[in-house]
Amino acid sequence: MFQTPDLGGPGTGRPGPPVRRSIATISLSGPLEEKLAAAARAGFDAVEIFEGDLITSPLSPADVRLRTADLGLAILLYQPFRDFEAVPETLFQRNLRRAERKFELMASLGADMLLVCSNISAAAIDDDALAADQLWQLAERAAGHGIRIAYEALAWGRHISGYERAWKLVDRVAHPRLGLCLDSFHILSLGHDPAAIRQIPAEKIFFLQLADAPLLNMDTLAWSRHYRCFPGQGGFDMTGFMADVLASGYSGPWSLEVFNDVFRQADAERTAVDGMRSLLALEEALALRPGLSPGPVTLAGLPAPVDLTGYAFIELAVDGLMEPVTEYFLHGMGFARTGRHRSKPVQLWQQAGARILVNRTRADDPGQPHGHAAVSAIAVESRNPVRSAQRAQALRAPAIPRSVGPGEADLPAVTAPDGTTLFFCQTDASGHAGWAGDFEPVPEPPQRRPLLTAVDHVALSQPFDYFDEAVLFYRSLLGMHSQPNEEVASPYGLVRSRAVRSVSGGVRLVLNVPLLGGGRLAETATYQHVAFSCGDIFAAAQAMRSAGIPTLPIPDNYYSDLIARFDLTDELADRLRQSGVLYDRDARGGEFFHFYTAVLGRRLFFEIVQRTGGYDGFGAFNTPVRMAAQLHYAAAGRLQLARVN
Ligand code: MG
Ligand code: MG
To answer: Distance, CA 613 to ligand 2 centroid (Å)?
Structure first.
């Protein structure tokens, strides 16, 4: 039943069996059969069946057993069985009868482990001897059915809330059919140190449930119900937790037990893939942790991440209406058209290290509103594009089948959760980029001194239901670091924002999502922008204005506040105000200067930035100012049009 020496593991000099990956059905939306299919398709080995999913299903337990087996999934656990232990005798007898019914059901389901969570009812008595006696009797009954009991301390349990007390209880009962279920949420949400898990005999840890969560100060029950997320999507030290679990010698399944307001309504298949990705990334993080091998399990091996040194290009998809507007903007910003794609309606625009592809889409169909301009693809410079793509595929990113003309470069590409295409490119030592060969040079005089030097960052709005998925996707696939969530106030609602950056800082992405769906915020919540770096922000602002590029007007009040906040000289404040440039400064004196163009079409705009002194942020303090200014600007634009008509 338990780990045998043949499987390798600690003391054998060989690593143990691969991790068995499981997911609780409550983690996925939809009816039970959809949940099971989604778990199987995402590659899980097993599931936990949540009672509520079975009760609401028209499938009989035997049907569920067959369906699950057909899908190649094992049923590891049935849950939850509540409010059992440490109760008065009459209630205890009733609880035993209740348990017998569940044991019978589990026999038809083919599940041989029942999760019993610590009692939360007012009837529970704070008496470990009584609890131990009643759990022993439950374990005895379970033994008669070939069932094991995994006892879990709920963070909000009435008397048993910590895993250490739960372990004392299980140890005291000393019944082979009773063990612990460790749930990372219940342990870490209470701030308990998981290090004592190392001392628990591995064979007494029957089950392991994994959930992360954002760090919030709130009641653990509400926190658990609404905010659990997959490992790596929250603020808990999941790697440290798992290091303690593995140090105990535990070689059993890793089961995701996650529920939150978004997953409950999101697409089950996507959530399942997201969950699988989170486990693979967690396994990798553990494998890279020193002093762990050979562990009780063999952790997933992924192709190592490749540092991204910069952007090869950004592709904009534009319709017929927006193509000339986009070209007008690019030209005014100092870009020159330098190439035309040999087989596609795509133009290459370039200045210094900044490259933009303008892809005239055939989105001019009558169903589509006109005025479409959006970031459709991001091409990153990888030192090893093939390995980058292999890593992306190992992390379950959907690869894109591409149509490549004869002699054209075949760039590895995947689709991000927001629909953006991600290309992996490499410009070789001689400066030759394979993809650039797909473009015929265009005879157009290059512009004077370049204003802009490179792409600094790209900010992408995310679909409401898939924000955490997107952050994990970009961070794990690209081996990037993520910064904490920021919440930014727009005039019509809060926007959540999270930045990820490559190790060298060459690629930075900012992912944004409204905190709540719908409302007036929806109008601006889909905005996205490409930011370019420059060496002289004032010269860039001046040149772009002379070229007739509309920039975003910033209110005077902003500058009055800026002077007070940073103790700026009047001279610098005047320069900033006159140029419409926003400003930020970090604790080490690094400075950030930036300004924005008007919005092209309905959602795309550009930002020009200058960083000094190692400034590494994005001027988050200025974001509410920008969003309010964009609303005023859009309103003023409509007013002007109304006057013209
Ligand atoms: Mg649990
Ligand atoms: Mg920005």
So the answer is: 18
Top CATH class of 308-644 equals alpha beta
Architecture of the domain defined by 21-287: Alpha-Beta Barrel (3.20)
Is 435 buried (19+), middle (13-18) or exposed (0-12) by CB count in 10 A? buried
Round the average pLDDT of the chain to a whole number and report it: 91
pLDDT, tens digit, 9 for 90 and up, residues 467-480: 899 999 999 999 99
* Inter-residue contact 170 to 182 (CB < 8 Å): no
How many angstroms does the Cα of residue 183 sit away from the middle of ligand 1?
5
Residue 280: burial class (beta carbons within 10 Å; 0-12, 13-18, 19+): buried
Rounded to two decimals, the pTM is: 0.90
Q: If we measure between CA atoms, which residue out of 192, 190, 228 comes closest to residue 210?
A: 228
For residue 475, what is the DSSP state?
A: H
Q: How far apart are CA 383 and CA 309, in angstroms?
A: 8
> Can you tell me which residue has the tokens 């879990």?
152
Specify the pLDDT at position 645. Answer: 41
Residues with CB under 5 A from ligand 1 (ion): 183, 209, 257
Our measurement of the distance from residue 589's CA atom to the centroid of its chain's CA atoms, rounded to an integer in Å, reads 31
* 3-class secondary-structure state, position 404: coil
Which ligand places an atom closest to the C-alpha of 592? 2
**pLDDT tens, 327-358?**
999 999 999 999 999 999 999 999 999 999 99
Q: How far is the CA of 575 from the centre of ligand 1 (A)?
A: 58
The phi, psi pair for 397, rounded to 5°, reads: -80, 135
> Could you give the CA distance from residue 499 to residue 617 in angstroms, rounded to a whole number?
9
Q: How far is CA 549 from CA 352, 488, 553, in A?
A: 20, 27, 12
CA count, 13 A, side-chain hemisphere, 215: 8
| Helix, strand, coil in percent for the chain, rounding step 5 | 35, 25, 40
Average pLDDT over residues 590-597: 97
Structure tokens at 312: 């090869």
Query: Picking from 114-128, 229-243, 259-273, 516-530, which range would have the lowest pLDDT averaged per residue?
Result: 516-530
Residues whose CB is less than 8 angstroms from the CB of residue 330 and which lie 6 or more positions away in sequence, other chains included: 337, 349, 356, 358
The answer to whether residue 406 scores a pLDDT higher than 90 is no
Q: Are 236 and 264 in contact (CB under 8 A)?
A: no
Q: Which ligand is closest in space to the CA of residue 608?
A: 2
CA distance 77 to 103: 12
Going by their DSSP bridges, the two strands 21-24 and 421-425 should be labelled as: unpaired
Q: How far is the CA of 67 from the centre of ligand 1 (A)?
A: 24
pLDDT of residue 632: 87
Enumerate residues 6+ apart whose C-beta is below 8 A from 61.
54, 105, 108, 109
Task: Enumerate the CATH 3.20.20.150 domain ranges in the chain, comma separated.
Answer: 21-287
pLDDT in tens, 30-78: 999 999 999 999 999 999 999 999 999 999 999 999 999 999 999 999 9
Residue ranges of the chain assigned to CATH 3.10.180.10: 308-644
